[in-house]
Design goal:
This protein is α+β, with helices and mostly antiparallel strands and 486 residues long. The chain has helices spanning 2-29, 87-142, 148-161, 164-200, 204-225, 280-285, and strands spanning 45-46, 50-51, 61-67, 73-78, 229-233, 237-241, 247-250, 262-266, 273-277, 290-293, 304-306, 309-313, 319-324, 329-335, 356-360, 363-369, 376-382, 389-398, 405-408, 411-415, 422-429, 434-442, 449-455, 460-465, 468-477. Helix 1 (2-29) runs parallel beside helix 4 (164-200), helix 2 packs antiparallel against helix 3 (148-161) and helix 2 (87-142) runs antiparallel to helix 4 (164-200). The radius of gyration is 38 Å and the shape is elongated. Residues 226-478 form the Olfactomedin-like domain. Keywords: Coiled coil, Disulfide bond, Glycoprotein, Secreted, Signal, Synapse. It is found in: Secreted; Synapse.
């Protein structure tokens, strides 16, 4: 029995190695190994979206994801370049995959033939072992003394063979596993053939049209991602310490990428000089600037620079002025009817802050209060060219109780104060004409905020904090809605 036992041991060892190879290597060869899924690495960091793929032209990449409160998945996608969408390249890859699967199919057929042959041998041995066990039981029952010596020999041999029975059962299970692999490969080959036929049914132009359509949908999705709900404000970053206790500073959100000029206005009234720094670097490290003289002094700290012009509230009036920096002339002026001015409805810190001009992803806004709305905040969307009111919303929040305010994605966010501990606690959405009370911590590092504005290009809050020019990064939560939900 020594030779058959040795043969069984070799067969079992071979089967163990083959089974291990099939379970670990086969899924990765056919692209089914889910453990290989990983986040794209080697990219560049981005403050608003996380990590970009190192080679976005090679494949579709998911590089940002989150969940909303209802468990809906939120993600950002980068599409591959059109040059990679080649029917020939895809067909070549599919053909290589098919050849690889066909090679594996042939190998498994050979393995299956060997397994079946060895299995027949094992089954014959199993019958012999069971017959031997039956004879052994008969001898044990009779207890005949004349065959005691034979009984002992048979018992010893049976004890030697008994451990092989569970091993044989495991061998049969391995044979079934090989059969399952064979069936799965047949199914996979069939699917790949169907896919190849489907790809072959489309011409190149049709494929290009499908890709272009998908890219348009993705661009629309990315535009929706440009806006979101405020969920967090970072710790302050002090850019510079200069000027008086009150003032404003800003950059132009519509300026080209290479235009990083900074605009600086010290004080809240009876001043008409605006400083222009060539870059944020110059603003931080030097006093080199160009001075612009406005035709009228400004009121408050609610000025904005937008598309090359500065918009400000003329001192001691409810007039809004658009001043073009290139031509150094007033390109438009208009009265904001019924708006309080001259410290009638200021923010809680005072400073003639009756009319606050703001910019967000949607354009130009004016935030003020009127007698008609009992001193509560009014939000007006302005046409930046004509300064006419496009639409207005009335809120239930008293303007004098607000510390400061800013607009993000059509929502007005209001702080509960301007000194000491501060938070953003009130939000009014112009998209839904509804409000809610929120609780977003906001660090007031230098204890007196007299200007707070959002820049949609930087996705940052610009603040004037007791003679310090400060930046805050913001966290926006994005929700992608389908066309049916809009």
């Amino acid at each position: 029995m020594s030779v058959p036992l040795l043969k069984i041991g070799v067969v079992l060892s071979t089967m163990a190695m083959i089974t291990n190879w099939m379970s670990q290597t086969l899924p990765s060869l056919v692209g089914l190994n889910t453990n290989k899924l990983s986040v794209a690495s080697g990219g560049t960091a981005d403050r608003s979206t996380g990590v970009l793929p190192a080679n976005p032209e090679e494949s579709w990449q998911v590089y940002s994801s989150a969940q909303d409160t209802e468990g809906r998945c939120v993600c950002t996608v980068v599409a591959p370049q059109q040059s990679m969408c080649s029917r020939d390249a895809r067909t070549k890859q599919l053909r290589q995959l098919l050849e690889k699967v066909q090679n594996m199919t042939q190998s498994i057929q050979v393995l299956d033939q060997r397994t079946q042959r060895d299995l027949q041998y094992v089954e014959r041995m199993e019958v012999q072992l069971k017959g031997l066990e039956t004879k052994f039981k008969q001898v044990e029952e009779n207890h005949k003394q004349n065959i005691a010596r034979q009984y002992k020999a048979i018992k010893a041999k049976m004890e030697e063979l008994r451990p092989l029975i569970p091993v044989l059962e495991e061998y049969k299970a391995d044979a079934k596993l090989v059969l399952r692999f064979k069936e799965e490969l047949q199914n996979l080959t069939s699917v790949l053939n169907e896919l190849q036929e489907e790809i072959g049914a489309y011409d190149y132009e049709e494929l290009q049209n499908r890709v272009s359509n998908l890219e348009e949908r993705l661009r629309a999705c990315m535009q929706k991602l440009a806006c979101g709900k405020l969920t967090g404000i970072s710790d302050p970053i002090t850019i510079k310490t200069s000027g008086s206790r009150f003032g404003s500073w800003m950059t132009d959100p519509l300026a080209p990428e290479d235009d990083t000029r900074v605009w600086y206005m010290d004080g809240y009234h009876n001043n008409r000089f605006v400083r222009e720094y060539k870059s944020i670097y110059d603003f931080m490290n030097s006093d080199n600037f160009t001075s612009h003289r406005l035709p009228h002094p400004w009121s408050g700290t609610g000025q904005v620079v937008y598309n090359g012009s500065i918009y400000f509230n003329k001192f001691q009036s409810h007039t809004i002025i658009k001043f073009d920096f290139k031509t150094s002339v007033i390109s438009k002026s208009r009265q904001l009817d019924y708006a309080g001015y001259n410290n009638m409805y200021h923010y809680s810190w005072g400073g003639h802050s009756d009319i606050d001009l703001m910019v967000d992803e949607g354009g130009l806004w004016a935030v003020y209060a009127t007698n008609q709305n009992a001193g509560n905040i009014v939000i007006s969307k302005l046409n930046p060219n004509t300064l006419q009111i496009v639409k207005s919303w009335t809120t239930n929040h008293p303007k004098r109780s607000a510390g400061e305010a800013f607009m993000i994605c059509g929502t007005l966010y209001v702080t509960n104060g301007y000194s000491g501990g501060t938070k953003v606690y009130y939000a009014f959405s112009t998209n839904s004409s509804t409000y809610e009370y929120i609780d977003i911590p906001f660090q007031n590092k230098y204890s007196h905020i007299s200007m707070l504005d959002y820049n949609p290009k930087d996705r940052a809050l610009y603040a004037w904090n007791n003679g310090h020019q400060v930046l805050y990064n913001v966290t926006l939560f994005h929700v992608i809605r389908s066309e049916q939900e809009q």
